[in-house]
Design goal:
binds S-adenosylmethionine; Arc Repressor Mutant, subunit A; two-stranded antiparallel ribbon; seven-stranded mixed β-sheet; single chain; alpha/beta; Rossmann fold; 2 domains
Length: 361
């Protein structure tokens, strides 16, 4: 009798888990369909108003047969709304979907998540090889979808939430407000954080650094017309070469866990810092300890870790191989090994899925 109950329980669990995996298949396919709409400009074209397949094909310059299938799939998935039937059916992008999929200024902008997902999926053969050999897949190989996805996913937070977040912490705001404060943004990617700092603190001199040349080129384009910001292609390990005691503040936004040698970079940053300077590290707000099952943040960060951040970090021989899930104790250990005497968590809450750390020399 007991055995039957247990068999039934297992059967039910099998069914539930198979259902969960099927749900994930739907999610993954719909995320890819969002990528098609994003990269082909279909959502953007729908901002002009509802369209039939023929009209949208004309507007976006995409083959009509594919457009019709994609429109129907989007309606079935509940992303687009539809009026009318067959060839005359007209498809509409509702306001909420328009914001989430087409508005780069919105904190809810989510099209970049699809770009990040596609950039990782496209590297599956290299990832499989790296897992077997212990090698890696460098960030540059993930390509434009990863670079743009990363830049655009953080951009609204840097543009619209970072100034107030920093201003709310006197220990940080006062340093950034010093006359002609020198500020370094290490591993700045597309430079949106660097630009936000330059705009929020117009008297400061803000310098963004990244080892990725295309990212630096994009950052320079994004910063056109802003006087107090410059960008240079430079490894974080070389920041001290910019000058000892040069900076009042240095930032590392969502990049410390990617660095093959975080202690080396922090050591160099510390040397480049004035004795009364500060370092702010923004990184993932993961749990204090490994305690599965995890919440959505923990699940997302392990997802990025197995697909992108760990393989990127491990593409450098001798990497410390942190992975995306850098717990607070790990960050504190790196900071202390780099010579920082104090590490604390800043009272900045609700800033996407990030935690801000303050490092003092
Ligand atoms: C996840 S992205 C973060 C970019 C940006 N800070 C942001 O928040 O959008 C990580 C960045 O670290 C850069 N990076 C990795 N290793 C580096 C190193 N040793 N020195 C400088 N930049 C590095 C990569 O090129 C990439 O732009």
């Amino acid at each position: 009798m007991e055995e039957t109950t247990s068999d039934e329980t297992v059967e039910q669990e099998v069914e539930e888990f198979a259902g969960r995996v099927f749900g994930q298949l739907l999610g993954a396919m719909e995320l890819l369909s969002i990528h098609l709409g994003d990269r082909l400009g279909l959502y953007q074209a729908l901002l002009q108003g509802p369209a039939t397949a023929a009209e949208l094909s004309e507007r976006a310059g995409v083959h009509e047969r594919y457009v019709r299938e994609w429109l129907e799939q989007q309606a079935v998935a509940g992303i687009l709304e539809v009026e009318g039937e067959t060839d005359a059916a007209s498809f509409r992008l509702p306001a909420a979907q328009a914001e989430v999929l087409t508005n780069p200024a919105s904190l809810a902008y989510s099209a970049p998540f699809a770009r990040l997902f596609v950039s990782a999926a496209a590297q599956m053969p290299s990832l499989l090889a790296a897992y077997r050999s212990g090698g890696g897949v460098p960030w540059a190989r993930f390509g434009a979808d990863a670079r743009d996805g990363q830049g655009d996913v953080n951009r609204p937070w840097f543009e619209h939430a970072l100034p107030d977040a920093l201003a709310s912490v006197p220990a940080v705001h006062d340093v950034l407000s010093r006359p002609e404060a020198g500020i370094a943004d290490v591993a700045c990617g597309h430079g949106w954080s660097t630009i936000a700092l330059a705009r929020a603190y117009p008297d400061a001199i803000v310098e963004g650094f990244d080892l990725d040349r295309p990212a630096i080129e994009s950052a320079r384009e994004h910063a056109a017309g802003i006087d107090n910001v410059t960008f240079a292609e430079l490894r974080g390990e070389q920041i001290a070469e910019q000058g000892e005691e040069r900076y009042d503040a240095a930032f590392v936004f969502e990049a410390l866990h990617d660095l093959p040698d975080p202690v080396g970079v922090l050591t160099s940053v510390r040397r480049a810092l004035r004795p009364d300077g500060i370092v702010v590290v923004m990184d993932e707000a993961v749990a204090e300890t490994f305690a599965p099952p995890g919440d959505d943040v923990e699940r997302a960060m392990y997802g990025y870790s197995i697909l992108m951040c760990l393989p990127d970090s491990m593409s450098t021989p001798g990497s410390i191989a942190t992975g995306t899930v850098m717990r607070p104790a790990t960050l504190e250990r790196y900071a202390r090994e780099a010579g920082f005497s104090a590490v604390s968590v800043l009272p900045i809450e609700g800033f996407a899925a990030f935690r801000f750390y303050l490092l003092e020399p």
